[in-house]
Every structure is written in structure tokens, then in C-alpha cells.
Design a protein that fits this description.
292 residues, mainly alpha, 73% helix
Length: 292
Amino acid sequence: KQFTAAFGVYMELFLDVLGESLVDTAKMLPFLFLAYLLIEYIETRHGERIEALLAGGGRWGSIPGAVLGCVPQCGFSAIASNFYASRVITLGTLMAVYLATSDEAIPMLISNPKFASALWKLIVIKIIIALIVGFIVDIVLKMLHKNDEQPDYEDICRDCHCDHHNIFTSALIHTVKISLFIFIVSLILGGAIELAGAEKISHFLMQGSIFQPFITALFGFIPNCASSVVITQLYIEGALSFGSCIAGLCTGAGVGLLILFRTNRRYKENFAIMGVMYAAAVISGLIINAVL
């Protein structure tokens, strides 16, 4: 009987996580397909006007990147990852999108009216952080002459041999492959978080400690909306300071990083991006906790 009861509990948990993973992946499908369709269109046309348009305004790309990153869900971080892998946008623009992304945090705060002031502070502060980091990254790379790479459109089709398909079929192939990858990772991570439980996670995040932003920033790297949900919920419940919440959400680019590692084969560069994100998140969290 004990085995049957335990099996029933774990099966129910599995079905819940499975359902959430399916829903999260389904939400990404339109964004992914449109992103790949746009990239495929660029690949086939190679028009200079299109390249200039998608490149955003070069060094000013951090501005639309920061604003679009604030849109709930992590669709734009996924699009930005694909665009950066093809060198359509600059690294500063990519960083701005990542740092501005809050995934599920904004809808959760909207659903709690007493946190309306925190919602606006969150949006404004994350846009400021995204703009500062984005501009600094692009300026430094420009000085080092490392931001002048030509778009590398062929990278996206390097392993799939889909160049003989029309752009819709090719975009669909890429979307299906990435979606399956996202679903599997989301399923694994979602199950791990459910098994751990909110209480253990709260203890892990060092409630009340000055070092909390260091831990929440690491926790935010989990490539799943569950991290933003947990971080925001713990902030609402008072287990996290506002600065620690900001730190965790700054590294919470959703599946953006997951897609970056899947599409951008320069892995050292990917880890360097994570390092800059982590440093910016921790420093921001510590400053906010000291000021507010």
C-alpha cells in the first residue's frame, strides 16, 4: 500500500511537471518559428538593407533590446540568442535582452496588487541595468575591434543540411529540434525543483544573508521559467530581499541561454557571457540592497 501511495504521488507530480513543460514549450513555438523564419529569409536573400534593419542600429541596439526583454515570457531572449548566433545583433544587444528578461516575474507581480510599486521598480531598474551593461559591452568590443564581425548566417544550418528546403520547411525543422531540446531540459529541471520543494530552496538561497544575491544570481541561470517563478514567489513571501530578487531575475534569461549554447558553438564565449551576466546581477543586487 505504501508503495502504491508513493507511486501515485510521484505519478501525479510527474504529470504536473509534464503538463507545465508542454505548456512552456508550446508558448515558445510561435517565437521560435518566427525567429527561424526571419533568419532563413535573410539567408536566402542576403540583402544589405535587411541586414542593416535587423542589426538594430548597431551600438544603439541595446535600447530596443532592453525594452523588448521586459516583455513577459522569455520569447525575445530566444530570438536574441538565434540572432546573435548568426551575428545579426551585437553582443551588447544580446546582453541587454538577457538582463532585461524577467520571464514570469511581471505577470506574478501584476497578480499581486500590493506589489504594484515593486513591479515598476523592477522594470525600470532592469532596463537601466540592461542599458548600462549593453552599452559598456559594445563600447569595449568596439575598442578591441571585436564587434565588427560579418553576419554568419550559414551557422544556423551547419548541421541540419536543410539548405535544399524552402524557408518555411527549414524554419519548421529548426523549431522542432530546438523545441524538443527545450522540452526535455524543462521536464528534467521542473521535476528536480518540484522534488526539492520551496522550503529547501528558500534555505538554499540563504534567507536574510548579505550573500543572498550571489546565490539567487546562480539560481536564476536555471534555463526554465520555474526559476523566475520561485524567485518571485519567495520575494512576495518575504524570503528574498528586493536586491536579491533583481539579481536572480537578471540572470534568468529563460531558455535564451539554452538556445545560445545550442546554436552558438563558441562555448568559451557563451561562458564569458554568463560571467558578465553574473557579475552585473550580483553587483546590482548588492547595491540595491544597500540603497533600498
